[in-house]
Every structure is written in structure tokens, then in C-alpha cells.
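Interim report, section 4.2 (structural modelling).
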Amino acid sequence: MGSEGPVEGRVRLRVEWDGMRVLGARVVSRRPQPQSLLQGRDLPAAAVILPRLYSVCGEAQGVAAQALASAGELDAARVRTWQERLRLETVREHLWRLGLDWTQATGQEPWSEWVRTLLHERERFLRDADASAQWARQVQRQLYRGAGLETSDAFDPDALQAWIRASGTPLSGLLQALSSRLVGLGRGRFNPMPTGASSDLLRELSGRLREDPDYHWRPDWSGQVFEMGPAARAEGGRQGVGPGATDVIDAWTRVTARVEELHRLLGELARGQPATGHLAVRVDGDAVLVAVEMARGTLVHWARLDAGKIAAYRIVAPTEWNFHPRGACQQGLEGMEATGEGVLRTRVQHHVMALDPCVRYQLEVSGA
Amino acid sequence: MCLALPVRVVEVVDDDQARVDVGGVQKVVNISLVDDLEEGDYVILHVGFAINRLDQAEAERTLELFREMAGTEAHT
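Predicted structure of the assembly:
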């Protein structure tokens, strides 16, 4: 989201509402691209500039830009370091969404201390695996005590309900507050992006970005608009590869997927396991594309070079998929029930928060 | 893509809150994630929270990048 200003951009939502339910919804996401800043510079310069432009996803933007700059000479040690950075940023993002945003939205006390620790101790944690393991164990114990996740990172639905009723952790309390608000909210067809940007996807993205200067505003893969984020990663992982899921999803599933993924990542840190987040590079003649998996989904940077200088630079962020005119946000808004405009605005806010855009949104309601 | 726009601290209200200047508009933000902020410091904001401090030179360099970006975006 970030501070306000003309440069920031917005997701714009327009819903037609008859006083009972949403009859139609339009979603437009237009946000600035760094193309104008980077044109004529070289890729290493872009790798210095881009992390300064972005706040909470600065690490992912920096990794993508650095990977782009060194596409021809990616070595395993460097990739491992980037993966560790991406994992810590993802943990911080999940703690932020749950402990600051969702607690605020439900009137609960925020749990800011862990976010604060990750903001201040990131570099130490990257150097000192024992320190990050100890911290992760502590967070996991305090949030997930009694959750029954000792052998699996996925909740059993019945056990989850029993845990959030009986347990007294900050997380179980939050989930108890969210359960009645989010179950069934924003229900829509679930079409998760298959896990790990496949070579087919990278080839299509590279070609489309070259051909269509507006592709990054409304990305699709062979005509399909996929959902990204923790729920999509979990489902995509279960499916293996290839599009085709046609199940339904709601805000509750999206939030609990985040909770499960946070548990898994904390467990990896606690056990000292290396990060394995996806990072892929594709070179097509004078153009290079990098895809990295970050908290919100797959982040893509693409650049076309002319005599070693940047001729074109595009970023395709996960928000562009989830807030695509035919994406998960739009589908979840269609048919949303609300008996008053205040209720509608709150339900839209929760639906949007579950999909986690990286900018603010603006809602226009008509037809009541 | 949350842009890291630096804002200047106008007044530290208490341990958790400060008034900042966002493009000429003042607003109160949460500063509990950043230690020892003082009036005149620059911070990056995210959803109502200050998330890190910048020195003035770094803030000016970053603001110049955004001005350049905004200026050219208006014509694209």
C-alpha cells in the first residue's frame, strides 16, 4: 500500500449494488512503472535504483533486478542468498498482514514486535542461522501452540475450529475473530497459478511483454487469469503443474493458507533448512526475464536491451493477476451480499485484504 | 509494488505516534516499529506505519527519483 501521492497508483473497484447484493463489478489496476527512470541506464544501475523505490517488497524487487543484471552468470551461492532474503521478507509480510493489518481490521491488539524484529534484525538473521532459528522457534511456539501442526503444515478443518475456540494464542484469537467474517466471503472460482514459473509460462510472458507494451497491466497465460498468493501456492503445489483447478475459494481459505505457509516457513527457519523459493531466468536474444516467488506470488521483471542499455523495462507484480479485470478480486465481488452500504464496504475491504494488493484501493458504489 | 516514498516527521506525538508531512498534507502515523525518531527525520511509510528511517540526503535522492518518475508517468 504505502503513502499517498499521485505517483503511487491505485486499484479502482466499481460495484453495482442493488441494496442486497453486488450485481456487477469492475476492477482496474493502473500503477506506475519504473521504465522512464531506467531507460538508457544499464542493468546494474537498475538493480541499485529499484530497491529504493519499493518498501515492503523492496527485497524481492532488489533480488529480481539483481538476477536480471547477472542473468548470464547466476551462481548457486548467490541464488541461495537471494532465496534466504526472499523467505525472510515473506515471513515478515505474513506477520505484517496477520499481526498488524488483520488485528487492526478486527479491533484487536496488534502484534508488532515480531515485524519489528525482522525489520531490525534481518541482516543478522541472514548471517546467523542459529539466531534466526531460535527466533523462529519462539514465534512458532507463541502463535501456534496447540494447533496440531506437529506433523503437517496444513490444518485439519475440524481441528482448526476446535483450536481457535479453545486456545489462547494471539493467532487463534485473531482467527476466531476472522472466522465469522471471512467464511464464504468473496467466494469465486479458484484458478491457482501452478507452482514454480514453468518454462511455458516464462516463454509466454517474455513474448507477450515484447509484443504488447500494456501486457503488464492485464497479464494472462494462454487466456487464463490465475490467482497468486499463499492459497495458490499451496494448491498449485498439491496439483503439481498445469492449469485446470476449478474449485471455489473464499477469504477464509486465503487467510488460513497464509497462516499455514507462515507455519511452514517458521519451521524451515527453526530447523535450519535452506530456503527453496522459486527463481527462474529466461534470456531471449536482447531481452531477459526473471521470475521470483515472493509473499504475494510470482514477481516478474523483464528488460530489453539496446547496446547494453535498457530500452524497455517492465514489472509484472502479483497484484496485476489478482486484481485483473477478470481476476480473483472481480470474481469474488460479483454476487457479494450486503444489506447496507457500510456492510458492503467492510466486506469489500476484507475480500481485498485477503487478496493482499500492494497498493491502496478505491471503491465506488453505484445503483443503490 | 508498494512505493517507498520518504516523508518528513513534523512532530513526535508520543512513543507510538508522530505527525508526518505527506506531500504537503499532515497525517498521524504509527512509529512503534522505528526507534528514537525525532522531528526532521525522514521515514518510509507502509499502511500507516513508519518502517525505516532515512537520512536527509538519501531521502532527497529517493524523492528526486519519484519526481522524475511522476513527471514522465504523466506523459505516458
